[in-house]
Amino acid sequence: MEKRIIIRGVLVGALGGVLAFLFARIFAEPVIQRAIDYESGRDDAKDALAKAMGMPMEGGGPDLFSRTVQANIGIGFGILLFGAAMGAIFAVVYC
Questions:
Q1: In Å, how far are 13, 25, 63, 65, 66 from 73, measured between CA atoms?
Q2: Is residue 1 predicted with pLDDT exceeding 70?
Q3: What is the pLDDT of residue 57?
Q4: Helices (H), the chain
Q5: Would you state the pLDDT for residue 47?
Q6: CB-based burial, 42-81: b 16+ in 10 Å, e otherwise
Q7: Do residues 76 and 19 make contact, with C-beta atoms less than 8 angstroms apart?
Q8: What would the pLDDT profile of 6-65 be if each residue is shown by its tens digit?
Q9: DSSP state, 57?
Q10: What is the Cα–Cα distance from 54 to 70, expressed in whole angstroms?
Q11: Which one, of 20, 19, 74, 17, lies nearest residue 9 by Cα?
């Protein structure tokens, strides 16, 4: 009996995770991308100023994961896993 309730909790949590992923992908991701574009432009301006003044430029290292992977796979997997975990916790507490 308890096992069925916990499995249902995990499934409902995963469904909530899918809905949260869709919300984040549609509404949050464009705002995050605008912020990244702003920061990139600011860094480019700072590097141009440093180059014009003859100062050494700050180098940023390569990204470990591309922005596309972060925006699709990373956020999807993270939210889905978090939703399933919250559903399981809620089901255990309910039992």
A1: 18, 11, 15, 10, 11
A2: yes
A3: 67
A4: 2-23, 29-52, 67-69, 75-94
A5: 80
A6: eeeeeeeeeeeeeeeeeeeeeeeeeeeebbeeebbeebbe
A7: no
A8: 999 999 999 999 999 999 999 999 999 999 999 888 888 888 888 888 777 666 677 788
A9: P
A10: 35
A11: 17
